[in-house]
Design a protein that fits this description.
2 helices, five-stranded mixed beta barrel, OB fold (Dihydrolipoamide Acetyltransferase, E2P)
C-alpha cells in the first residue's frame, strides 16, 4: 500500500546530493511543528515536532539542491515510508518521504521561480524558454482575455522584479 502525504514544515538540514543508479538524489531532514492557541493562558503553545527524512530524485532532486536552504518553509508531497532500523545496538523508527513535489510555503516569504529551459538535444521537439513564452499565447481556449487587465499584453511582461531576494524567515507563528 502506498500512502501519499503532504507535509508543511521547515528544512532542518542542508540538502545533500548523492548518486543512485537512476540519477541524482537529494536528501534532507524536515521538521513539522504545529502551534495551537491555549485559551487558558491566552498564548500560542508549540506542539510536538515530527521529523521526516526527505528524498528527491532526478530533476526534482537537482532543483531541490539548488533551491532549498536550512530554515526554509516548505511543502512536500510524496510517498510515505515508515521503517524500523537497528544500528550499533540501538533501534528506532524512521519516517521517510519519497518526494513527488516540493515548494516554498508562500505564507512566510516570496520566491523567484525560474523554469529550466530544455535543450533540443535532451528531448526531440523540446521548447526553449522563449519558444514556450511565444506558445503560451496560443493555448486553446485562451482567446478570452477577460482575466487580463485591459490593454496589458501578458507576453511582454518583464519578470525582472521576481529576481529579488526573499525576505528572511519570519518568526514562527503558524
Amino acid at each position: 500500500m502506498i500512502d501519499t502525504v503532504t507535509i508543511v514544515g521547515r528544512v532542518a538540514t542542508e540538502p545533500t546530493q548523492g548518486q543512485t543508479g537512476s540519477g541524482p538524489v537529494t536528501n534532507f531532514r524536515m521538521a513539522s511543528s504545529h502551534r495551537r492557541y491555549d485559551n487558558t493562558t491566552q498564548t500560542w503553545v508549540d506542539g510536538d515536532t515530527n521529523w521526516f527524512s526527505v528524498a528527491a530524485f532526478r530533476q526534482l532532486g537537482e532543483h531541490a539542491k539548488a533551491s532549498l536552504r536550512t530554515g526554509d518553509s516548505i511543502i512536500v508531497t510524496g510517498r510515505l515510508r515508515i521503517r524500523s532500523w537497528e544500528s550499533n545496538g540501538k533501534q528506532g523508527t524512521s519516517v521517510d518521504i519519497d518526494a513527488d513535489a516540493i515548494g516554498h510555503d508562500l505564507r512566510w516569504g516570496t520566491t523567484a521561480y525560474r523554469p529550466r529551459a530544455r535543450s533540443a538535444s535532451s528531448e526531440s521537439g523540446a521548447r526553449t524558454a522563449a519558444g514556450a513564452e511565444s506558445e503560451a499565447s496560443e493555448v486553446p481556449g485562451d482567446e478570452d482575455e477577460a482575466d487580463s487587465p485591459e490593454g496589458t499584453d501578458m507576453s511582454d511582461l518583464d519578470l525582472a522584479w521576481a529576481e529579488t531576494t526573499a525576505d528572511p524567515a519570519p518568526a514562527r507563528g503558524y
